[in-house]
Amino acid sequence: MYKNWYEVGGGIMNENMVGNLLEKLDSAGATTKDSSERTAYVRACAPGKLYVAGEYAVVHGSAAIVAAVNRYITAVVDSENLGEDGKCCGIIDSNTKKYEPLRYMRGVDGDIEIVGEYGSKGCNSADSINVFTSVESSQCIQPYAYVLAAMRVMNAYVYEKYGQSVAARLYNLHISSELDDAESGQKYGLGSSAAVTVATVRALCQWYGLSLSTPRICKLALIASAMVKKSGSGGDVAAISYGGWILYRAYDRNWLEAELTLIQSGDSNVCLLLNKKWPRLEIKRLKVHSALKLLVGWTGSPASSAKLVSSVENGAHVSAGNSAGNSESNSAGSGLDKNFSSYTEPFTYEDFCVQSEICVQKLAKSLENFELDDIAAEFAQNRELLRKLSVLTGTVIETQKLTQLIKDADSVGIPAKTSGAGGGDCGIALATIYEKDRIESIKSAWQNHGIKPLNIEVTKIFGTGESSENITMGKKLLQKSQLSQTSLRSSRLLQESSQSLTMQNRKDEHIALADAQYKTFACSGFDTVQFMPNALPQVALDEVNPSVCVLGSDSLPNTSHADAAPRNWRLPFYINAMTGGSLATKNINASLARVAAKTGVAIASGSLSAALRDDTLTSTFSVMRSENPNGFVMANVSAGTSADDALRAVNILQANALQVHLNAAQELVMPEGDRDFRGWMHNIEQMVSVCEAQQVPVIVKETGCGMTAKDVQRLQEVGVHTVDVGGRGGTNFVAIENARRLHGDYDYLANWGLTTVESLLDIRKCEMLKSVEIFASGGVRTPLDVVRALALGASAVGVAGEFLHTLMHQGEDELVQQITAWKEQICVIMALLGCKTVKELRENVDVRVRDIV
């Protein structure tokens, strides 16, 4: 009855269905042996990792903080030369010279069998590897233990999903690593075992045409890792799978061992295990400010985490059996530093785990809130706990070089500690990107003491947990001497993707740096503006109307765009241009748009340059219209944009108006910025002509350096009717771009340009500009700043940094409340000045400005 049918994941499929599946897999890069004329080629990268806090305790259920870092192991799968000598064999090899290649073949039942004659010392016959047997005992395959475990897990998973005919395909697997020292070949301690496991799982997912979520990839890698080493916590696997910073709590190891036993006996399978909730397992991504910079120093002495963990556990067990729980009895003769043996209060391993949990939770909160003093305090506390553990167990965790590494950082006020199991390997310090002199001082001191600073950053996160550097790595790896046409096309696609991801990374960095730069007090000049009080206001509060008519609202008819929305704004301020162009900033734009819809405030998008270059990023901006269908929305483009692209931007948002931003200073300081601005005036003239013909008004705005009356006059000559002065005092993009530079060469340009108040005053003095409508933005922090700007001649006031800070730290509801409160408070201030309308405010109020000529 079931002839020519195959079992597939609890169901059945006939030969035609299997054939269709094989064809689909072929197109995804998993070729059959018969298609030898075409080379399939896929690759996947996995980053390294560093433990930040929670070492040792994480093995016994306490939380830990782990970060993925931008050194990579790469797994490449291809089908080149399979069975070229008459044997149907695949090759597993590594760029690590001391690891000789392995050759494997498929058994009758599809299992992986190592062929011993191919460079396998001590393997004289085929060494059959069943699905869930240990690989530790086989001497010849030990260097590839984690690779083989990952292959076997994926083999079992694909078999359950698609049957043996799919799972049993042969392939070559090539491993290359950046996690070791290039000169000596010694390991840095960046989690090479976990990285090679994750990289292999990812590569085989691509090979078999599987699209799995990050949690499932992580679980597959955890299963493979547990097959090799049952005692591991899995924190390294989780961080490498998810990318960025994570807060991690280990799964129940006894439970997983029992589950694997059920699979081996045939009473369960991998698919069921992936779908189960794993007891105790917790993985939370931490939203750590990108202004924080992780510094890594390598002591030159590799350490074995497994041996150190075993030593600590044995020492803790011995200590628990002694009547004396204090450190002095346990440290005698241990060879520990004398400073480590000065503890006299009783301290147990249980104490260590409990106190480590408290420390890690506090540190996680401090990292997310950018609380530098608290971060330093928790680094010091974690270090102290590890030193107590060292004395308790007689295990040297903080070596003399690691102590020196920490002292060098402490000497300039930067917190530092050991990373991971200690005993050598790396130490870490945590600075900010603004502390360039201190960072260079630390690196110099480390080098003087024989400690190698590693050029390492925490990886960025994308939707699947991949990091941006994976794409960059892919470009290097695809430069093989013999590439098929398929691979060459892939290379071009990777290059285009890399450019897109670079743009996305920059947008994410801008948001993080802008938020880190935020201060409650802004140097925008508003504090110098003083109103003369009106003791007899002659107005009732409910008579005050803060609405404004802007952008020639009385003269422009309705159009096909969404600008049928009135240009009579209910509020005299608006949410100014911020962001867009990445997955993370899409969420910010969606939140801002929902706030705008709820409050009736106008809103501007960030620059649409990214969407104009890459259609896949369009949704990161268009979400502002979908979440705010009836609101007043302004699109934003650079002055380097063509008129046609400007209209495209307007159409993406169905925008009511177009902002054209001027940012020459930012572009020049930006490492990858523009360097030629000769076409700006022509472009602006063309954009004004084309957009206003479509009844879309144009606002030309600066982005933080302010405008002079001369600037506005030149814009007026090419047809511009509205400008936003965008003065210094708010988000400082010159400083942001300088922070992104390797050496921060342009610190002295941080105060370039005019403040918002200086710009308003310079324009106010010029009678020729009375017909130009002026918007004001830059460093607006309070409702009083809004009223001050209106009194100095602004028709409307843009707010960005203040609202972004509220959104990111308190959420949408709080921002809605803040905007509502601003409206009420502006009305109160206007009543105090005796003004019922903004027009009266501009014409009748006596304003004094101190210390500005």
UniProtKB/TrEMBL annotation:
Keywords: ATP-binding, Cytoplasm, Flavoprotein, FMN, Isomerase, Isoprene biosynthesis, Kinase, Magnesium, Metal-binding, NADP, Nucleotide-binding, Transferase. Substrate binds at R506, K507, Q666. SUPFAM superfamilies: FMN-linked oxidoreductases, GHMP Kinase, C-terminal domain, Ribosomal protein S5 domain 2-like. Gene3D superfamilies: 3.30.230.10, Aldolase class I, GHMP kinase, C-terminal domain. It catalyses: isopentenyl diphosphate = dimethylallyl diphosphate. It is found in: Cytoplasm. FMN binds at A577, M578, T579, S607, N636, K701, T731, G779, V780, R781, A800, G801. It holds the Pfam family GHMP_kinases_C. GO terms for molecular function: ATP binding; FMN binding; isopentenyl-diphosphate delta-isomerase activity; kinase activity; magnesium ion binding; NADPH binding; oxidoreductase activity. Residues 683-844 form the FMN-dependent dehydrogenase domain. It is an enzyme of class 5 (isomerase). GO terms for biological process: isoprenoid biosynthetic process. Its EC number is 5.3.3.2. Residues 379-451 form the GHMP kinase C-terminal domain. Residues 157-244 form the GHMP kinase N-terminal domain. Its cofactor is NADPH; Mg(2+); FMN. Mg(2+) binds at E667. GO terms for cellular component: cytoplasm. The keyword Flavoprotein applies. Homooctamer. Dimer of tetramers. Belongs to the IPP isomerase type 2 family. Involved in the biosynthesis of isoprenoids. Catalyzes the 1,3-allylic rearrangement of the homoallylic substrate isopentenyl (IPP) to its allylic isomer, dimethylallyl diphosphate (DMAPP). This is Isopentenyl-diphosphate delta-isomerase. It comes from Gardnerella vaginalis. The lineage of its organism: Bacteria, Bacillati, Actinomycetota, Actinomycetes, Bifidobacteriales. The gene is fni.
